[in-house]
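Write out this protein's structure.
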Amino acid sequence: MKPRLDFALYAVMIAAIAHASDKVVLTLAGCVADFRGAVDTYVAEDRASGSTSVGPQVAKTPVKFLSGRFAKAAAKLEPLSAREEFRRATRIHDLIASTVGVVDTPKSVESVLDRLASALPEGMRNRQWDYRVTVLDQETRDVFTPGGGYLVVSQSMVDELLQNEDALAFLLAQQVGHVVRGHCRRRYQLSDIRKRLSSYDLPDEASTFWRRRIGDLVQEDRRTGLRFHFDRAEILETDLFAIHLCRNAGFDIESGLDLLRMGVVAGSDDLQTKLHTMMPACESQWDRLASLLPKSQDSTVSQSDRLDQLRMDVDGFVPGQDYGLFEWDSASESFVRLSGPSLSAGERAVVCIHGMDSDMGKYRPFLTSLSQDERARDMRYLAFRYPNDQSLSRSAQFMMNNISQVIPNPEDVDFVCHSAGGLLFRYYHEVERGPFRRVIFQGTPHHGSSFANLRGLSEAREVLGDLHQGPLAALMHARHDGRGQIKYDLRPESLFLDYLNQDREQRHLDRYYIIRGQAIDSAALRRVAVSADLLRPLIQWRVDHWASRDAKRPDFTRVINRLKMPQELVSGDLAVSLESATIDGAAEVVTVSARHARLPTDEIVIQKTIAMLFQTN
């Protein structure tokens, strides 16, 4: 019988000496910490050397960098219903099962998947399918998904992971992420595009180029049908999805990341030697580990790079000096970055946190007005800047780290937060238990915003705005700004908001103050609503004329029937609805006539914010 690989090596060792003394158990716990620390240090050094932080795409020209995205962008324009994805996935799943053979799925594996599925927010669930695990009767270690809720794992992989349900949860959650993020659906769309290319009269060079591009992501297998390949960005995206889903489901993230740590060890002879030196008592286990894991990984992104990205998210690490806590100098009207203890005990301060696709400059008018107020004469004026694309939990942890280094007395600090900045603060306080004096939210989407899906418009504006520096500089700025996780965090019923809005004992709502915007008056809303009612039948007529013989016509009709005015427009500031901007139990809620983007600079909002800062309860 093939020996099973236990990714949680420490669990196996502890199980082997279940009746050992406390001293031995504590020693083994120390080995676990040494192992994790050694691997994480190795990955951090690898990042510092520059071998993983930039990635292979940088070496390409801007034209090639963009061209690699065209096929996927075209796929997003191809409508494909959930029903059609499930039908195609079922066909591939059944073909694989009949060709390779399956075995019974262990109850423990089903239990892990049930916990993950239960932790999915309602908006991420699909009525067309339930998630299920199929275990293939094969020795080759493999895990993949054809979409449609099907997760396929080889028996050898299941056997290796049964000892560590956290690592198993991470593996399954990543496959769920490919389904939820639409990666599988896009592969089916790309397959359709490839078939239609043969009917187009394209030049040979162009036809070969597009077929090769699509072929890198979708490959035909005569035995099992389509086989999907995911690129670097998609893998890193689903890694983030996996740790966030595991967090929400109550799994241990550090234990789950041991799956990647073992991959890093197996791919580095140098690291194995170091670990043997550090923990000679475990040498036999490391030898066994090295013999069972492959020396190389055939992947678009290395295990080291994946672990590096996830560690930065978990630890709240942001490279460079462009982000962190800055102090406003009213004399020069500029921001100066702070590092190390900068405030005295008992010294009062205010920290401004900007929103998505914004920066500290939004708060210049507010800080100028505040500095002229006699009551704020002895205050320090700070602002926190974070990347506009990374996960909100990472930015919040990064803020927590900065505040603990710079501010010795955060219980004397007020926070003024615009939009997503308020969610950073809530994570800082409600999850990380960071202290504060008072917080003022300005248009914060506490329950998400449906307009987060339109973020691509603002991202395009950013890139165009940077083109004066040259096309390569604009692209590199966009790459440096992150992978776009924030747009998922801001959606209603996201993993982040689902976790943040759980009931928690430590929520000082009596110190929560809210300013929200109403952008459109009732008369204008009535005109817009009437226009929408008149436009709907016109769109339906156009669809009937355009797709009279198209099988997708019922799908279009259902979409048209669901067309309605978003609450962000009907009752909100054009980005956040009044309801989403409110937290039940807040000390005060004020509604002003202002648009979302102008809340921090609106004179009425500025005066109300200053009044709230010095209000006595």
